Amino acid sequence: MCSFWRMRSFKHFSHTAIALLGSLLSAISTRAAAEEPATQWSVLGECQMIVLGQKAALKLLPDLRDAEKIEAACVQLDAMIESNEAILSAYLIIRSFDQKLGNARDAELVRYPPEFNPPALPPALSDIPPEKLLEITKAWPLFGVIPGQFQEREIGATLDLTVSVEEGGKLLNVVAEPKHARFLGKRKYEIGVLPTGDHIGIEHARFSLLSNKASLNMANGQRVLLGFHKLIEPAATYELILLRVTAARLQ
Asked: What is the pLDDT of residue 141?
């Protein structure tokens, strides 16, 4: 009888020990997985912005939109850049990690006045009768406008890129936002007429902005056409925005 209870107690102890050991191993495995770095992939993003004439751009467009023909089309673009038939306006490179935001900037800050205060006479002339003031202002040496404030604007090419690596590195979920801002010079606007009959005006800065915000799935190492934009200046020119993304497992 004692042997029976001893045997039963031993079996109960064995099952309990095995269960505790299993729980311990599971906890250790879970902790190890939690402590394992989440980032296991490095990411390389390459963005080209290429300017070329309308005829050449429209001719290449079908191949640039075709996943099987885009690489051959890019070889043609490289040859056009080398022969000055096309211009590489920006080449941005980002090195980042899986699910981390990376950005590249090839730009400068331009300071410009968005608002102006109207021209005004000195306070000392405020009490002069209008008929005399008209004669005085006709001989006034200068009527000018003063900037009311200044702002800064980023001019150049930028890229924000986030990549999520999936299916063991075969598939990349990509969120990309390329932008290209340009300063186009100044445009004069009339703001008034002087007592002499002369017109006065101010010059406002002019800018253009080409941008895309894309969310897409790409094969590892694939190149895609993200943007196809008509430029304001020069006339009959387009800018292509090409993106290639590659992911490599960290050692």
From this structure: 59
